[in-house]
Amino acid sequence: MPNIIKNKQVCDDSWQVWRETDILPSSGGYIVPLTLWKAHKEELKSLGSIAVFLASDESPKALADDIAELDLIAVDFPKFADGRGFSYGRELREQLGYTGELRAIGDFIRDQLYFLNRCGFNSFALETSDLEESLASFNDFTESYQAGIDQRLPLFRRR
Amino acid sequence: MYTYDHFDRQIVSQRVAQFRDQTQRYLDGKITDEQFLPLRLQNGLYIQRLAPMMRIAVPYGTLSATQLRKLASISRKYDKGYAHISTRQNVQLNWPKLEEVPDILAELLEVEMHAVQTSGNCIRNTTADQFSGVAADEVEDARPYCEIIRQWSTFHPEFAFLPRKFKIAVCGSESDRVAIMMHDIGLQIVHDANGETAFKVFVGGGLGRTPVIGSLIHDKLEPKHLLTYLEAILRVYNQLGRRDNKFKARIKILVRAMGAETFKAEVEKEWAHIKDGDLSLSNEEIDRAKSFFVPPSYKTLPQQDLQALALESADFARWLQHNTHEHKVSGYRIVTLALKTVGVAPGDITAEQFEAVADLSERYGFGEIRSTHQQNLVLPDVQQTDLFALWKELVELEVASPTVGTLNDIICCPGGDFCSLANAKSIPIAEAIQRRFDDIDYVYDLGEIELNISGCMNACGHHHIGNIGILGVDKKGQEFYQVSLGGSQGLDASLGSILGPSFAQDEVPNIIEKVLETYVDLRQPEERFLDTFRRVGIDPFKERAYA
């Protein structure tokens, strides 16, 4: 069972990413593409626990009506320098009111954990040999100027 | 000036520690080159042709004497004893060692400086008029708002990996000295009929390979909405800006593709979610920012008769006319120090000059210095009765070339001598032009002319908005130069028109001479180069240049 970082701790995790866009998985426990979910909602729900990932060009607005039905939402980073997912995280939390597990998957790096966490991600399928060591990056900063999901007030309202 | 409190100090100090750790992990092989790239860029570090280049932030071009002395000592200790003022008012070191960069950052922190977001695909250093707070034509000081924007944009968690770099400029005067129309976002401070402050918001301007003049998308934004509106613009851009082609990734391309009206509608939709929320600026925060920029303790002085002062000497008179500007306070004058000595790269400054300017700023002012996007320095608060004494010291220091605003006040990027992106050298072109036009009376007769040189399409030398622009291009492995005419910055900004096929390096001074002769032949009394060009068009220039 692979390890991930969840709520700033390393833990076991059984979710798997399903990247096929026209074939359904045969059981629950998969994080499936948005298009597959949109086309086969009822069948996917009947499989048990189900999660959806957004590709970097898929706005979270597409999930506005589905949020209550999902056990987990993931955002896929095709390249770590593609920062769209940071906005998607905030939109899911702040505009769509999503409170469940929000996971970063794909090609992001340890040095982005602090910002990702501030944008509402609380789970990280980080590809590295040393997850424990990576946890240090959550503490790159202990204070920040901006509001975020972890701190709702910008610094100027607190200083 | 803005001074750090414990929050600012802690944030920048943690940044230094973060980059020290990242650099160590990179040197240990735990971070790949590709992963390290944006991390180092966002700390101002480029890997260039000859060595790393490090860009130190000078927020809105304001420096203290203490900071100048630190820059002098850093350039001596970690570099070759000189530095460079960039066209974004920043300071660049040309020869630092990668392993020593964390130490440089730690030293900068001692004087409340950093290199945060001076490069990379993030929100860059916000620029302002170099005469902010002292300009006679000022509507309102831009610096408090620049500082508010600096804090909001520093380590913004959502906008550190944008499609491309993002530049914001704020203009607080009637004449625009910061080229707001050429920025991703340009803000112009205006006062409405009731004297209330508001911002005109221009978006999608830019230079580079696709020069575009910004579009007005809000004509009266209240200050309390400043950050929510900026955040809405950035959020739209971060999600919709192109990422498939770095040459089409700037916001100007998005605004043009969508149309300014549609883009504005998207921004308004996003804005509706956050407008009047916690990010709205409180009066207390605006007042707090303003409290750092209250006018220094000026003396009550009578206005001097500058014509009478000028009688001291002919050289002084020339300098007085060209290198000083009107101050908003009676009895004071703004002085520009020209970093345009022939034979030295435009904008270069030695450690000794830094220290001397620091001393001068204390003796002839309140210990404050400005850097300009024309790559000069400014002493903002000089008493008029001190001007002659100051001038003599500036002459000694070789920063009194009386050419500010003339043909010889060339804006020039580092070019192929230093920069790995460049197609061609730019510094030798600047030098050749300065040498050709060394007759100061001829240069004065030509009047106000901006000549800008870039070594490649990236346009760091702002060639598109030079009255005369020169762009280095690569033609089958040879360095050639394309000339454009009629560009201008300011509120009536325009982009230059290309004269025609490009020229070899040694032809450039001849061509510039022909262009200037054409102007002299065709101008009407008192007509500036730009106005003559706008009146007669490019054809007469073309005919002469290619005859």
TrEMBL record, chain A:
Pfam families: DUF934. This is Oxidoreductase. It comes from Zhongshania marina. It comes from the Bacteria.
Automatic annotation (TrEMBL), chain B:
Residues 53-111, 342-396 form the Nitrite/Sulfite reductase ferredoxin-like domain. PANTHER family: BLR3264 PROTEIN (PTHR32439:SF9), FERREDOXIN--NITRITE REDUCTASE, CHLOROPLASTIC (PTHR32439). InterPro entries: NIR_SIR_4Fe-4S (IPR051329), NiRdtase/SiRdtase_haem-b_fer (IPR005117), Nit/Sulf_reduc_fer-like_dom_sf (IPR036136), NO2/SO3_Rdtase_4Fe4S_dom (IPR006067), NO2/SO3_Rdtase_4Fe4S_sf (IPR045854). One of its GO terms (molecular function) is heme binding. It comes from Zhongshania marina. Residues 119-274, 409-543 form the Nitrite/sulphite reductase 4Fe-4S domain. Keywords: 4Fe-4S, Heme, Iron, Iron-sulfur, Metal-binding, Oxidoreductase. This is Sulfite reductase. Pfam families: NIR_SIR (PF01077), NIR_SIR_ferr (PF03460).
